Amino acid sequence: MSSSPDDGAGHTHTHTRTHTHTHTKNPSGRLRVGLVHAAFEGVQIFVGGVGTAIRGQIGALPAVQRALANQGVELTPHFIEPAYLPAHPHYDEKSSTHHRERIRETGGTFSVVPSGTTGLAADAVWGDPGLGELRNWQIASAALAGRLIDLASRYDSLVAYCHEPVFAFAPVHTSLQAEAAGVDITAVYVSHATAFAHEMPLPNPDRLMAESLPVHWAKISPGVRLGSISHYMSRHLITDYGANPDTFVPTRNGVDTTDHWYRRRSSAELSGLLTRHGVPVDRDLLVTFGRGVPYKRHDMLIRAAARTRRRAHPVIMSDTELPEVRALAARSQVDATFITSFDRELMASLLQWGRTRVCSLSAENEPWGLIPMEARLLARHGGAVLVTADSGGFSEQVADGIDGFLHMPNDPAHLAGVIDQVLGLPEDERARIRGDAAKRVLDREAWPVKIMESLRATVPGIDAVADAALRELRAVP
What we know:
CATH superfamily of the largest domain: Glycogen Phosphorylase B
Strand content: 15-25%
CATH architecture of the largest domain: 3-Layer(aba) Sandwich
CATH topology of the largest domain: Rossmann fold
Number of domains: 2
CATH class of the largest domain: Alpha Beta
Strand order of the largest sheet: 5-4-3-6-7-8-9
Structural class: alpha/beta
Radius of gyration: 22 Å
Number of strands: 15
Distance between the termini: 34 Å
Number of helices: 17
């Protein structure tokens, strides 16, 4: 029996794994562990928070592999996605090539499974069109389960993280077949958002069903677990989906603190890029980022800016056009810059620019969110102070007044007051807040540590050596 860390809902639990087959060790006698991430975006598709998390894992895995190898564990990663054509609207050839090569360098593989499409956008008549429909999920999950059973035959243990409804049925299929196939698989269903919380007021009933299945199957099968990406999401799955707290393992997202993206850019480099994108460099800036969907609440920055006597210029960067927010800005007589892009260099430049005062993130019921971590690490030497809604996973990432600020959800007047407070801070106080914020991210949110914490709660053989591996990982600057 092995003990897991806090599951993200404030619970700890134990789980018992029964091995019903004999492993064939490699000549060195090392424990061989296979690690699978099955997601609908990340390598081929460069869009969205799940994709960012997958790419972060890819970048951090070599450090985890080295730390585990020093403890006698061979970790081999595999990344699996639905098959996409280059004609897919979000296919990114450069990113796909780069991340496939990074996976190959780890000794792992990238592969695809069918999903009931021709490789173009899945589309859906109800709910999130990018996820597709029930038939897509059934096909992709069944195909993934077959792949997992085949992969598991190569390892002593295999842990598979099945992200989102596209792969919601795979944990059930694998748990039913694992004993017959003589393999050891732990399938972890990771929900980054749900129909019940993020498609309201009218959720997709098929998605509700698909998301509920692994939640309840985890109560039945010891080979199925639920991933906890935040306290908020764990509480939500327990309260609204009936999850058993003892079935969670931690799967919190992090950042690859060694990524070159977090480098410090020169003032000339920053001003040049901002100018090319039409961002005024002679005014104080308020910036926000995220997909162009209602719950991200990009409108809050416009509403707040109108109440701050237009002391600073709002910049809204989203991956889709936001005509309703543009119209709101025009009605409110707020001069704002709208950028429809996922250009990471532009995002980094906006956050690091010396006259960017606030990064405001007002999403409600955000499951966790990577941008708060990214923003604080990018702005550690200068630029934006973080302000987030006191809602969802955002609330867990900010100590109000210490390393950022919280504002009341759906309250533009309160947000305006917080922005005014930040604009009035002396530079040394802003620098202290940014420094504390970056330290929090570096100390708590590095991807290698997050990966190890999840593996130790999921694979008993890793749990036995995790403390030593974690000490090594935390010692790396």
